[in-house]
Design goal:
alpha/beta; single chain; six-stranded mixed sheet; 16% strand
């Protein structure tokens, strides 16, 4: 017998979001670990907010939402709010009821900036890392470091000369036309007006240069879990300096090993690691085939 296609939805629902999420869903384990860490951060949250006034977004819910944005690669906070409006899984993870209204994007962004200013992300990461260590999931001897470029929220149009010699009346104040092709632009002579700390950098030869920051992560080699991370200016020694700084934070005095790609193959960096009782396992840079052929003696 054919079922009827009723278009009128029910006015009431007696099934919670908890019942809709499968028992073996990966987010359940993540939610349990995050909740343990958030419960210990209560005193820090209390110090961040005033005792009187209109209640803000709960910092616990805000952090869970930001974690979802990272896990599911939601490219903007506006899209994250859209997902929270209709995604039942996202609502359950954040801790929102089905009838709760989604926050305004600007309100969410303002509250997020408060958490970043208080360095809450690092405070949240520490107890999560401690849980992994208590379960013997982390190696204390073997590590790997790597870095990448994080594109800044600044356009090439904002990258102007520091002395202001290229200032001209714009043809359109809202979106002026800028022709910088053929112009020699470097971090020594130019600076972004919208993000002064961003640096013009490229990932490698032949790649386009973008205004960026340098992001770094330290992984342990037993299960490939991140144990430390940082962001700094995209300068020439950004990767080695960040690697040494993260190595110095590793607990204990035993000798450890550190793996890295050929971008870290620098004599002074290898010596610094050895001075810190670190055995470097770094891929060596190789000369090009043409250079090797020129240096090889002629065959007879």
């Amino acid at each position: 017998m054919r079922g009827a296609d009723h278009q009128q939805s029910g006015m009431f629902s007696y099934i919670s979001a908890e019942e809709r999420v499968p028992k073996d869903h990966p987010l359940r384990a993540i939610r349990a670990m995050i909740d343990v860490a958030l419960r210990n951060m209560g005193p820090q949250f209390e110090a961040m907010y005033a005792r009187v006034g209109r209640p803000s977004i709960a910092p616990e819910k805000l952090l869970r939402a930001l974690l979802l944005q990272v896990l599911y690669t939601v490219r903007s906070e506006r899209m994250l709010m859209e997902q929270l409006n209709y995604n039942l899984l996202f609502r359950w993870f954040v801790g929102m009821n089905l009838d709760d209204a989604v926050w305004d994007v600007t309100v969410f962004t303002k509250n997020r900036e408060r958490l970043l200013a208080a360095d809450v992300a690092k405070t949240l990461f520490a107890p999560v890392l401690a849980q992994a260590r208590s379960r013997e999931l982390l190696s204390s001897e073997h590590f790997t470091v790597d870095g990448t470029l994080i594109e800044a929220w600044a356009s090439h149009k904002s990258f102007k000369r520091k002395d202001g010699s290229d200032q001209q009346p714009p043809d359109d104040p809202g979106n002026p036309t800028v022709d910088f092709h053929g112009e020699q632009r470097s971090n020594a002579t130019h600076q972004s007006t919208s993000d002064p700390e961003a640096r013009l950098a490229r990932k490698g030869a032949g790649k386009e240069a973008k205004l960026s920051y340098a992001g770094h992560v330290l992984m342990e080699n037993r299960n490939g879990l991140a144990v430390n991370g940082c962001v700094n200016l995209a300068a020439g020694r950004a990767e080695p300096e960040a690697a040494v700084a993260m190595v110095e934070e590793i607990a204990g005095r035993q000798r450890i090993t550190l793996g890295a790609d050929k971008g870290y193959d620098r004599k002074e960096f290898v010596q610094e690691l050895r001075d810190h009782q670190v055995t470097p396992h770094i891929a060596r840079k190789r000369t090009s085939c043409l250079q090797r052929c020129k240096s090889d003696p002629p065959r007879r």
